[in-house]
Amino acid sequence: MAEEDARSEGGEAAPKGGKKKLIIIAAAVLLVLLIGGGAAFFFLSGGDDESARSSAPVQREAIYVKIRTLEGRPMFVASLENPDGNRHFMQIYAEAKTRDPAVEAVLNQHMPLIVARLNTLFTTADPRALRSVDGIRTLQRDATELVNRLIQDRGGEPGVEIVLFTNFVMQ
């Protein structure tokens, strides 16, 4: 009987020690898997952030160039004629928005030509169309296209984003 008690105690002691070993091994394997998974996530996701940052273009600060005559007059004054014979006057202050200093230099260099062409564009505008916001936006879009075309014809890259009308008055 004493042998049976010893065997049963020894028999019970062996499985308890085996369970502890099994739990320790399982915890160690789980810890290794967690560390490996965390390392894999860190290394694999870190590369995506760098490639996303490097592929995203760095946007430069906007440069605004006042479109003005050589005398420094900052506005255009155009006389518009309606089909009914009435005469209207339009006054526009304009600025070109770009992000490229090279485009700014080309704008300043060819300012008299740009002013002359924009003046022609503004004097040929239809006063009835300019009574609506859409008509003014169309004139603004036409002015932007004209300035970009002039820059491109002079050997530059068309880099004017928009010609802004900072003041627009029509009587």
UniProtKB/TrEMBL annotation:
- InterPro entries associated with the record: FliL
- Identify its protein family: Belongs to the FliL family.
Native organism taxonomy: Bacteria, Pseudomonadati, Pseudomonadota, Gammaproteobacteria, Oceanospirillales
Q: What protein name is recorded for this chain?
A: Flagellar protein FliL
Subcellular location(s) per record = Cell inner membrane; Cell membrane
Chief subcellular location equals membrane
Q: Which Pfam families match?
A: FliL
Provide the Gene Ontology terms for cellular component. Answer: bacterial-type flagellum basal body; plasma membrane
Please list every transmembrane segment annotated in the UniProt record, as residue ranges.
Answer: 22-44
Instruction: Report if keyword Transmembrane is assigned.
Output: yes
Keywords for this protein: Cell inner membrane, Cell membrane, Cell projection, Chemotaxis, Cilium, Flagellar rotation, Flagellum, Membrane, Transmembrane, Transmembrane helix
Q: What does this protein do?
A: Controls the rotational direction of flagella during chemotaxis.
Which GO BP annotation is one of this protein's? chemotaxis
Source organism per UniProt: Nitrincola lacisaponensis
Per the record, membrane topology reads: Single-pass membrane protein
The answer to keyword Magnesium applying to this record is no
